Amino acid sequence: xxxxxxxxxxxxxxxxxxxxxxxxxxxxxxxxxxxxxxxxxxxxxxxxxxxxxxxxxxxxxxxxxxxxxxxxxxxxxxxxxxxxxxxxxxxxxxxxxxxxxxxxxxxxxxxxxxxxxxxxxxxxxxxxxxxxxxxxxxxxxxxxxxxxxxxxxxxxxxxxxxxxxxxxxxxxxxxxxxxxxxxxxxxxxxxxxxxxxxxxxxxxxxxxxxxxxxxxxxxxxxxxxxxxxxxxxxxxxxxxxxxxxxxxxxxxxxxxxxxxxxx
Length: 263
Hints:
Layout (H helix, E strand, L loop, with lengths): L1 E7 L2 H13 L2 E7 L16 E4 L4 H13 L8 E4 L3 H10 L4 E3 L4 H10 L20 H5 L6 E5 L5 H5 L7 E3 L8 E5 L3 H14 L5 E6 L15 H10 L2 E8 L4 E8 L4
Parallel strand pairs: 1-2, 1-3, 3-4, 4-5, 6-7, 6-8, 8-9
Antiparallel strand pairs: 9-11, 10-11
């Protein structure tokens, strides 16, 4: 059987997708849509990567451009499934030789992609090529006249943010009076030790949990025991709910949380 890898946003909801692909005659491997560990496939790449864009579009786009940026996986067909039409159109401009389809047409699209792998695949300028059109402050939800706490942020993060909307004030410490908190984490212990404290400080604007991508070390990243699953599960267990994801830059990923409403 031809081996493929499905990259989907959540294991519980990938079951039906896996069954559909297996019914089409494929040996299906599975990865969550968090960007962690996919580079390890370079020693034994599958016949194709099937990337679900129905949720967490930005992470799916990042994984696709990352696979094209890796020499070992560059020639493996990329099959993107679903996604918001406007975002998909922008991604087509970045990866014009990838396959874009829907789950209802996945069987024929995947068969054609595997039979016709890209001879001279387009290599994006960087893993962040797909994000160049959206300013980082907009991605993070920073708006005019906001007060934003950058907790444990890298020294140069204010520069990374670039031009801010009018009236925005940046602080180094959260007091509970901010419109938005961006909390940078390096290790799991830090997350577990301070999450209740940070939850109490979270206002209506929410809080970003930002951690180093495990796949970013070649680009200046750092060793970490955090993953998207760990961050999400810890947040949920402490009365928070995540509702937005962001690839901050080549080093950092983020999930945005709000305090869970009680009836």
